[in-house]
Amino acid sequence: MARSPDPLNLDSMLCFAVYAAGHAFTRFYKPRLDAIGLTYPQYLAFLVLWEADGISVKALGDRLFLDSGTITPMVKRLEARGLLQRQRDEDDERVVRVYLTAEGRGLRAKALAVPLEVGAALSDEAATVDTLRAGLHRLRVLLDDASSGTPSA
Amino acid sequence: MARSPDPLNLDSMLCFAVYAAGHAFTRFYKPRLDAIGLTYPQYLAFLVLWEADGISVKALGDRLFLDSGTITPMVKRLEARGLLQRQRDEDDERVVRVYLTAEGRGLRAKALAVPLEVGAALSDEAATVDTLRAGLHRLRVLLDDASSGTPSA
DNA sequence: CAAAATTCAATTGCGCACAATTTAATTGCG
DNA sequence: CGCAATTAAATTGTGCGCAATTGAATTTTG
């Protein structure tokens, strides 16, 4: 009589493992990002901006899987702090582009230390990290496919 | 001359893979949980309550890695909807315990369908799911250890 | 036993995160 | 060309999520 496993058991659920690991990352990043004055989502936005300065609000949101309701106020807060500027595209007035200021570009140097500390915390698991990231990427794709009406259609 | 990989490249970061997969889960769950009237965090709380009715607010928060600033208002909203009741512990007046109502217990039957749909979306990856979950669990432990002053101390 | 320290819940303030709506600009189609 | 459909941002409202603080109950300790 093998007891049937509870299908609603929290610890057996992949979704909760992802949820909890996400919060753990936020906690880990918090003191490191406090040092450069960014929140974790803001840090992600800068990762994009350091690679693609002048990107549109829309494209920034697509890159981070966030919508305008999240991006717009975040970008406005960063603009208020002088880390970037928002500017309407001349050719298409619907589009707002985000340009880093010198101060915003300057943050990058300080940010370089952060992934090193992540690497240190996970030092023994270097091999697993690639597997995990690949698995999570595939997970996201499968979930998003399933979320937007089966793509087989 | 192998080009040195950008240490701040978004797509190479495990933290972003976790972050994005978490949002993908939320999106996937949204329409399923709308059907039973719960948000995703509320669903997690019920997973705990269905297994541990009468748990304290503190213990519920520990289980979900959330603090009273998150749990207290969530539990109050659920109480306002008649899904549970809050009650001070008689032996220790600091403690508030959470008890499911009949309606709250009744949600469990509807919730059983949800993990089945997750399984369906990830059908071909059943083998990877266990590896992923284990990897994420270990990831969370390593990050939390590193977050709370090295435990080697 | 009494004062100090700890614990639990609640509260306040700020920043995501997303659904739904609104407004403006652009594209597409007859 | 002119109107409909689409697209981009912004806005509104609700609900997390956490830091910091408060207040009350309990435990620890001198």
Would you write up a description of this structure?
The structure is a homodimer of 153-residue chains. With 153 residues, chain A is mostly helical. Chain A has 7 helices and 2 strands. The first copy, chain A, has helices at 14-34, 40-51, 57-64, 68-80, 102-111, 113-121, 126-147, and strands at 84-88, 96-100. The first copy, chain A, has a two-stranded antiparallel sheet with strand order 1-2. In chain A, strand 1 and strand 2 (96-100) form a beta hairpin. In chain A, helix 3 (57-64) crosses helix 4. The N and C termini of chain A lie far apart (42 Å). The model of chain A has no long low-confidence stretch (mean pLDDT 92). Chain A binds a DNA duplex (30 and 30 nucleotides) through residues 23, 26-27, 30, 39-42, 56-58, 66-74, 76-77, 92-96. Chains A, B: Residues 11-141 form the HTH marR-type domain.
